[in-house]
Amino acid sequence: MRSYENLLSDLRARRGRQVTSYLVIGATCAALYLLMCSVLIDGLGINKALSSVIAYLLVLPVSFFANRSHTFRSRGSIPIQALRFTMVHAFNIALSAGLMQLSVAMGWHYAVGALLASASAPILTFLLLDRWAFRDPRSTDRQ
User: Fold this and answer.
1) Domain boundaries along the sequence of the chain
2) Which residues fall within 8 angstroms of residue 38, CB to CB, at 6 or more apart?
3) pTM of the entire structure?
4) What does the alpha-carbon distance between residue 54 and residue 27 come to, in Å, rounded to a whole number?
5) Tens digit of pLDDT per residue, the chain (143 long)?
6) Backbone angles phi, psi at 113, to 5 degrees
7) Cβ neighbours of residue 76 under 8 Å, at least 6 residues apart?
8) Which residue, 59, 28, 53, is CA-closest to 41?
9) Secondary structure of 101-139 as H, E, C letters
């Protein structure tokens, strides 16, 4: 019975470490994104929408390698995981746009769609990265 309790305790500690790492990396990448947008828009005079896309694409590899190394501690194939990671982010963009469209179609304020996307995307991203993008097919310890 004691070994089951130890296993459960270890799992909670690991998940807590993962979530903390994920949040810190997410906040760091968000700050980096904002800084890059500022430099591109205010410093270089690039179109705002284009600057947003450029900054997002520049931060994506930082997020990938940080989450791969620290949050999920993965040792799987980098090309496969990078493709999956990119697919997860493409899904997030589609989800965000869809929630915004739904919000507007329902006659709600656009902020409702933005809030729904902001609340759901990080949770879904964490789950998709943990269960799919960074999953090691040889590992049996992933709960």
Assistant:
1) 1-73, 76-143
2) none
3) 0.80
4) 18
5) 557 666 667 667 778 899 999 999 999 999 999 999 999 999 999 988 888 889 999 999 999 999 999 999 999 999 999 999 999 999 999 998 898 899 889 999 888 888 898 889 899 999 999 999 998 766 555 44
6) -60, -40
7) 134, 135, 136, 137
8) 53
9) HHHHHCCCCHHHHHHHHHHHHHHHHHHHHHHHHCCCCCC
- Which distant-in-sequence residues (6+ apart) come within 8 Å of 100 by Cβ? 110, 113, 114, 117
Reading the block at residue 6, the tokens are 């130890």
CA distance 129 to 71: 10
Tokens of 12: 């909670």
The residue type found at 12 is: R
Q: Which residue carries 């789950």 as its tokens?
A: 127
**Cα–Cα–Cα angle for 99, 103, 108, rounded to 5 degrees:** 160
